[in-house]
Amino acid sequence: MKEGSNTNKIISAWSHAWSFMSFRIQAIATLVAILTIPIIMNRFFDFVEARQGVLLNDYLLNYIPSYNASMIVFFFLYSGIFVGIYYHLLHPKTILIAFQTYVLVTLLRVLTITLVPLEPPIGYIPLREPFVQLFTSNGRIISKDLFFSGHMSTILSLFFSSHRKFVRTFLFYCSCMVGVMVLIQHVHYTIDVVVAIPITFVIYLFCKNVLGGRTF
To answer: Is the full-model pTM beyond 0.90?
Structure first.
């Protein structure tokens, strides 16, 4: 009975949000962008992987032995995504802002990765992600999409957008674990992880205050 009641509340919340023209336009545009991103990124990754980048001297990574933490990254990233979305199903505006943040952050990453060509850090261990590899040529692992971290910006898009205390606490923990583990695996430079935080926050503020449905 309770499950049916929650379902009805979710349907009602989305129906109410959908009644606003501005929400419909933004939601459809965001959905189209999310569906288009894998196609764009697949071609973009071909370009990124083929070029020569710069190898940075990362003082922090020099003191961290590399370790394969792929499964740990996968667990905290996708459990964070699931929890972040599931516990905000009653709040369409929150989900819309989170997705808008993700889309704009991803598009910005295309620009920064293009402008800042980097080679993987010394000690790099390929990060295996079953979901991401579904959208790459022949399921290959991408190693040069470095500045700035897509793993961090994705989970942070949900963290900054969340307004439920226990969800924010969980997403904060997931964000910390993802950031630490990609460094331990030497998948990213320290600057890739650190810079993702303020950039994602600024884009979140833009989505919330400019795009995020001030009329619904």
So the answer is: yes
